[in-house]
Amino acid sequence: MKKVLLALGASLLLANAWAVKPSEDAINACLKLDGSGRATYSKIDTTEFQSEDKFKGGYQATLFSDKGQRIGYAEKSGKDDALIWGRWLVPLASALPFNDKADVPSEFTPMLAMWGYVRDGKQRLLCVNFNFDGIGRSGSFQKVHGLYLMPIRSSNKTKPALYFGVRELP
After folding, report:
1. Phi-psi region of 138 (alpha: psi -120 to 50; beta: other; left: phi over 0)
2. Residue 101, CB half-sphere, CA atoms under 13 Å: how many?
3. For the stretch 112-139, what's the b/e string if a residue is b when 16 or more beta carbons lie within 10 angstroms of its beta carbon?
4. Tens-digit pLDDT profile for the chain (170 aa)?
5. How many CB atoms lie within 10 A of CB 170?
6. Is residue 72 a contact partner of residue 93, using CB atoms and an 8 Å limit?
7. How far apart are CA 111 and CA 41, in angstroms?
8. Which of 7, 42, 21, 39 is nearest to 161 (CA)?
9. What sign does the dihedral 24-36-117-32 (CA atoms) show?
């Protein structure tokens, strides 16, 4: 029993080791779609995409490819949406807050979002920046953006962590 508990504790510790909250520079680079402090931003080309109605797990997927890496958005019955990273489906509901207040993770339209990478020192993150379909497109809410940041690592053996927050452009 002790061995099982130790193994479980070690695996949780290892999984959380990848769950390093994005820095303020990384969050701002994703928000501004530009460099911020020591963090840099690079855009993913989303002009070419693929749709799959029968993606794994009963999802409908919008997929992009960047240097051979499969990236995208998975939808299922208007709920349980997820980001796609390689072979992983990372549920939006699993996103950890990067703000002081816990913003509720939000679905978005993948073709209206800005997709890119943020590099912050040795850390590289997938960045998805969107303003809330409809209310974010005009009026006083156009500066309000939802952000998903996912730390990327060289090993794909464990599901990546996901962070979410809402910020306003200056």
Report:
1. beta
2. 4
3. ebbbbbbbbeebbbbbbbbbbeeebeee
4. 444 333 434 444 444 444 589 999 999 999 999 999 999 999 999 999 999 998 988 899 999 999 889 999 999 876 789 999 998 999 999 999 998 788 899 999 999 999 999 999 999 999 999 987 655 455 666 788 999 999 998 666 788 999 999 999 88
5. 7
6. no
7. 19
8. 21
9. positive
Please state, in angstroms and rounded to a whole number, the distance separating the CA atoms of residues 74 and 64.
12
- β-strand 144-152 against 88-91: which pairing, if any? unpaired
Q: By three-state DSSP, how is residue 61 classified?
A: strand
SS3 (DSSP) at 26: helix
Which tokens belong to 46?
């989303």
Select from 142, 80, 139, 83 the least CA-distant residue to 110: 83
In this prediction the pTM is: 0.84
Centroid of chain to Cα 127: 6
One-letter amino acid identity for 159?
A: K
Tokens describing residue 57: 């797990």
- Classified as helix, coil or strand, 24 is helix
Q: Read out DSSP for 125-138? A: EEEEEE--TTTTTS
